[in-house]
């Protein structure tokens, strides 16, 4: 049988995993697809660097075009990262009739629509399961498993670095700065951690999840993102005392045809299944009108988990090649995107206020909430003797985001509120 | 566009859900598959019975053959249950070139191989996602999501009734008999609960999961099944004290090419993700060589969750009809089945023994474990004044099942062991 030839762009951690799985599981793969799968060419930055796996020298190249334009290569597997230059490679590969499997969340979040359209026009497959939540097959679950349902909510712990940091802060009472330093030493966080800790990485993944879940072209600009760098030990202590964990959640919601997508540190009730997802693990919670609550849990990153998703995509592409049905994939948006305004985005909120410790303060503060029609679920006032002030913790009932912003603006000019220490969305 | 015509066999709870979703989500479905999906005929037991959903009288029939032999019906959806008679209907439908979607775990566990072969021969699809774990799309996850990996272990809470009973016993300290009665009153348990509580229902589902996960034709007879009717309040109390929950787990394992599949009440460490799956929820934990630990959680039964899976299968069949690629599905076993012997099945065990309360007893008991090379992780002896005897709790290290059986046989003839009160497999 004619082998299927693969060109691999990138031989870092994930690329190495792809080679290991394709070569190590060759018999199993061949039993499933009916043909050998051969890695024909590999793009590397330096051919002379020593590798943890044996690769023939003549398979390696430092010239991407040698792979993109290789007449015998059927499928491109892109694990090199980068956006603009990589997009150029992928678009040309599709134009040349090559199918593409990619793990590149940045690329798909920023240029997914253009790439999907190009693929369709050239009857090519473009699959990207590994771009979100590593080894968890969440994209095919949304597209195929829940094809019959209307998904109303997707909540994801989709960034392992921040979940590792928050888990350590919660379990050990450590500070953000200390845990970040430790995560960097262990290789769980980059030396420049901005993309992870400021929620940008999670926002890119939520763009992809919301697009597939809601069948509408959600763009990265539609996602409001807030990271974890301002989360304090104190916030986590208060959260735990009230029965919550602090998690960086991506939240995509749909009501009728109105969508909102955001990423923010969120207080999640400890009884909610996503609250106990700890360490570098990822999980995606999906609520559908018919199916109700579901959750999918697994490794969000790492050489082999991510490579598992890539090679599963490769198997799907090869099966389509055999059946002659490439370029017919679902997951293309067929609904008009309508975003919620801040008035339409509703959730519970937690607020921690530092206030003057004297009579009448609580009445004035609760009046502000009443003025903007925010009703309160619980209020706790306690003195903080160390600063001769009181602290007030408020958990609201469902309130719209615009009203909460007006409440916060009013506190600015209210002399008894010395400081709004923390504001969190609340779930579960 | 020519509509796709569906014949529905059965209009009980799940059948009603299928009608609701197909009719309620018609626009979404049509956007995905490009054709209307029409429920053409529905098999009912009594045409004159009143229904919770409006169905044209002329769509209903009491004659299954009118649907099976209907010239215009493309897809049969079988939600009537039953085995031998239903198998006859499905085989004839396949012979007539009709595709089949079924929720029938009994049928697929007992006759899956024959039905899959018939479908392939007639180039028809046969899909059965709803047969295991209701709304959780676990079958397509095993077949597609993990196509590139080697699955080494599948552990499932795949029976909602028993998980509800064990959860209540754990959370409220109630007895098995009391909770079973309550579950029957609530409609969570059948009036004859044997199939659920004796682990037979779970065994059927594990047969399907193991066949797909390990690519070998596992038969129902290969699954050893033990139910929960002998689980006591006392067992659960001991388990919790030691940091475990008691769960009815289906466990399918593979080492090299050797397989074992079993269902039994199991002590699961509280830190394991499957230990916190409570109530009627289902979960399937999958360990793969490359992907590591994953878990999939959701509703295991119910009108709409189960119907979600059935209609997702229907969407997949219709897409294949459009592409002209029916009957090419994966999931057919390509590996020879080799079952482990009891000597090769290894796990930790918990034993609770009632023993004579005098000197030297512990030495004699631990000597029996040593005789059969079972090493012990922990031993706890305590007096039970109410019966003037002592109790010994033993947790072993990994031991093979044959050795544990020999230990238990030896205790029979050991005068100081008055009773082996409980034996549990231990996981996590």
TrEMBL record, chains A, B:
Residue ranges of every copy of the ACT domain listed in the record: 350-425
Keyword annotations: Amino-acid biosynthesis, Methionine biosynthesis, NADP, Oxidoreductase, Threonine biosynthesis
Superkingdom to which the source organism belongs: Bacteria
KW Secreted (keyword) present: no
Cofactor(s) the protein requires to work: a metal cation
Gene Ontology MF terms: homoserine dehydrogenase activity
Pfam families for the chain: ACT, Homoserine_dh, NAD_binding_3
Gene3D superfamilies: 3.30.70.260, Dihydrodipicolinate Reductase, domain 2, NAD(P)-binding Rossmann-like Domain
Signal peptide per UniProt: none
UniProt name for this protein: Homoserine dehydrogenase
Family the UniProt entry places it in: Belongs to the homoserine dehydrogenase family.
Enzyme Commission designation: 1.1.1.3
Pathway the protein acts in: Amino-acid biosynthesis; L-threonine biosynthesis; L-threonine from L-aspartate: step 3/5; Amino-acid biosynthesis; L-methionine biosynthesis via de novo pathway; L-homoserine from L-aspartate: step 3/3
PROSITE patterns, per the entry: ACT (PS51671), HOMOSER_DHGENASE (PS01042)
PANTHER family with a match to the protein in the record: HOMOSERINE DEHYDROGENASE
Catalytic activity: L-homoserine + NADP(+) = L-aspartate 4-semialdehyde + NADPH + H(+)
């Amino acid at each position: 049988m004619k082998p299927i030839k693969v060109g691999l762009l990138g031989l870092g951690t994930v690329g190495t995993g792809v080679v290991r799985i394709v070569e190590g599981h060759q018999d199993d793969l061949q039993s499933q697809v009916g043909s050998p799968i051969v890695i024909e060419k590999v793009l590397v930055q330096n051919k002379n660097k020593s590798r943890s796996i044996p690769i023939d020298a003549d398979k390696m190249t430092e010239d991407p075009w040698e792979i993109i334009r290789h007449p015998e290569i059927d499928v491109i597997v892109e694990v090199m990262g980068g956006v603009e230059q990589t997009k150029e490679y992928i678009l040309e590969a599709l134009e040349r009739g090559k199918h593409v499997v990619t793990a590149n969340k940045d690329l798909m979040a920023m240029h997914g629509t253009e790439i999907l359209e190009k693929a369709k026009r050239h009857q090519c497959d473009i699959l990207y399961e590994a771009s979100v939540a590593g080894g968890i097959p969440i994209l095919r679950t949304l597209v195929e498993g829940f094809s019959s349902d209307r998904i109303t909510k997707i909540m994801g712990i989709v960034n392992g670095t921040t979940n590792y940091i928050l888990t350590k802060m919660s379990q050990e009472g450590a500070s953000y700065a200390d845990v970040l330093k430790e995560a960097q030493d262990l290789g769980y966080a980059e030396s420049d951690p901005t993309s992870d800790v400021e929620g940008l990485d999670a926002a890119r993944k939520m763009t992809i999840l919301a697009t597939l879940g809601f069948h509408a072209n959600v763009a990265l600009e539609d996602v409001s993102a807030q990271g974890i760098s301002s989360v304090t030990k104190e916030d986590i202590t208060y959260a735990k005392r009230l029965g919550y964990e602090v998690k960086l959640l991506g939240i995509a919601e749909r009501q009728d045809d109105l969508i909102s997508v955001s990423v923010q540190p969120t207080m999640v009730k400890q009884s909610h299944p996503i609250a106990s997802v700890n360490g570098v693990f990822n999980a995606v919670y999906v609520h559908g009108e018919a199916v109700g609550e579901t959750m999918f849990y697994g490794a969000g990153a790492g050489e082999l988990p991510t490579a598992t998703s890539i090679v599963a995509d490769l198997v799907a592409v090869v099966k389509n090649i055999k059946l002659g049905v490439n370029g017919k994939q679902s997951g293309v948006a067929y609904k008009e995107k309508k975003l919620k305004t801040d008035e339409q985005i509703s959730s519970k909120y937690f607020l921690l206020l530092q206030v003057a410790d004297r009579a009448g303060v609580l009445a004035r503060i609760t009046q502000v909430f009443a003025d903007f029609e925010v009703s309160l679920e619980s209020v706790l006032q306690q003195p903080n003797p160390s600063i001769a002030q009181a602290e007030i913790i408020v958990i609201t009932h469902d309130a719209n985001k615009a009203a909460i912003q007006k409440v916060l603006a009013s506190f600015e000019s209210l002399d008894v509120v010395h400081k709004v220490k923390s504001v969190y969305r609340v779930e579960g």
